[in-house]
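User: quick one, sequence for these tokens?
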């Protein structure tokens, strides 16, 4: 009887193996019929030290998307790490983790190397923040006086003029990048019920993040504004030139597209970059409301993954008010910054009942080894402009409604 049972089990096993073999054969056959295809989109060309021209195709060095340059901007970059390169190691020395101390020493060496490689011919200017504001920022974030950015005299933090670009993002790449593709927003009409609109697929890219390439296609990029802004010119270099519609759009919308300041600071190998933009003023019978948007990038420069858990903002208005905002994550997410996907970028908004103010704060991050720390957001000014930019909707071929989400 036991022998019959064994024979039955062997027969069942053989039938099962036969079915598995059929499934494998079908899988191999299906893969052969529908193989993965690699298509050449262009050829990389040599990077340039000087400014790129309108129509230059590129790959984003951090986010990897395909894009095209519309026009350049010059911005004053305030990098606090360059003026206190020892703050990372000094801050970490207080911890009892020797492995982290070794990583921090390496990061400090990289910072020093970057400092020595900075061009000496770059223009510089005083930082926009005041000494009193720096003291308040340090106190609110709970920083100490040993090796922190609060030791840096704000008058010593010089801004270096660097080139950034307004670009179009290929819509085919939008679902796969870790950056908001509706980050460029503007105010609607004064009498409109909706206060914010967004143009999808626009971004601001630093010169060092541009990886230029060439393509023989007449329309190498998919974006609804590509053919409206650019035309194919085979004899030009690059072979795409701006149309009159692009020039008119830039001139009309220059105030709310303009970028003037960029702020950077690194804590525990996590670099925070902030770019504020003034959007305009809304007049009401009772008061005037001034609007800004700000773009924030988080970038992990270390070897261990970190996850953003909380945000803590301090918003100071010239009217004398100080607002504190706390919350989980940013824009409804708690992104993980890993060595494979090191960066995350988002945009948010803030409004004040005063023509100027300041913002600063921290992101609470948790490292994969369980270590949590507060990553400082560099202080930045909210400055209005004399022209009222909110009286009419900016001229644009396409715009989408966008829900307001303050202080993320």
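Assistant:
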């Amino acid at each position: 009887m036991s022998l019959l049972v064994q024979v039955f089990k062997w027969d069942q096993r053989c039938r099962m193996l036969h079915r598995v073999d059929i499934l494998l054969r079908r899988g191999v056959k299906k893969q052969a019929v529908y193989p993965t295809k690699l298509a050449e989109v262009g050829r990389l060309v040599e990077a340039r030290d000087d400014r790129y021209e309108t129509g230059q195709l590129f790959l984003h060095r951090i986010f990897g998307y395909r894009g095209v340059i519309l026009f350049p901007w010059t911005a004053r970059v305030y990098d606090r790490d360059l003026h206190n390169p020892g703050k990372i190691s000094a801050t970490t020395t207080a911890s009892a983790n020797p492995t982290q101390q070794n990583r921090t020493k390496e990061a400090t060496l990289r910072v020093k190397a970057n400092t020595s490689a900075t061009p000496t011919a770059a223009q510089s200017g005083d930082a926009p923040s005041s000494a009193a504001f720096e003291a308040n920022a340090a106190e609110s974030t709970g920083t100490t006086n040993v090796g922190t950015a609060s030791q840096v005299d704000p008058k010593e933090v010089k801004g270096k003029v660097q080139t950034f670009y307004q670009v179009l993002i290929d819509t085919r790449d939008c679902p796969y990048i870790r950056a908001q593709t509706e980050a460029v927003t503007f105010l609607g009409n004064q009498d409109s019920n909706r206060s914010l609109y967004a143009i999808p697929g626009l971004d601001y890219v630093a010169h060092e993040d541009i990886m230029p390439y060439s393509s023989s296609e007449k329309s190498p990029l998919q974006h609804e504004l590509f053919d409206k802004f650019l035309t194919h010119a085979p004899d030009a270099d690059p072979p795409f030139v701006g149309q009159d519609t692009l020039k008119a759009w830039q001139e009309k919308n220059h105030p709310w597209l303009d970028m003037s300041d960029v702020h950077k600071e690194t804590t525990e190998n996590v670099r925070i970059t902030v770019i504020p933009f003034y959007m305009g003023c809304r007049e009401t019978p009772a008061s005037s409301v001034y609007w800004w948007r700000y773009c924030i990038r988080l970038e992990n420069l270390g070897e261990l993954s970190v996850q953003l858990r909380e945000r803590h903002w301090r918003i100071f208005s010239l009217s004398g008010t100080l607002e504190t905002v706390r919350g989980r994550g940013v824009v409804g997410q708690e992104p993980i910054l890993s060595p494979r996907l090191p960066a995350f970028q988002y945009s948010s908004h803030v409004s004040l009942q005063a023509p100027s103010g300041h913002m600063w704060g921290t992101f609470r991050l948790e490292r994969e080894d369980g270590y949590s720390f507060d990553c400082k957001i560099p202080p930045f000014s909210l400055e209005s402009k004399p022209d009222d930019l909110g009286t009419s909707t900016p001229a644009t071929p396409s715009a989408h409604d966008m829900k307001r989400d303050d202080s993320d």
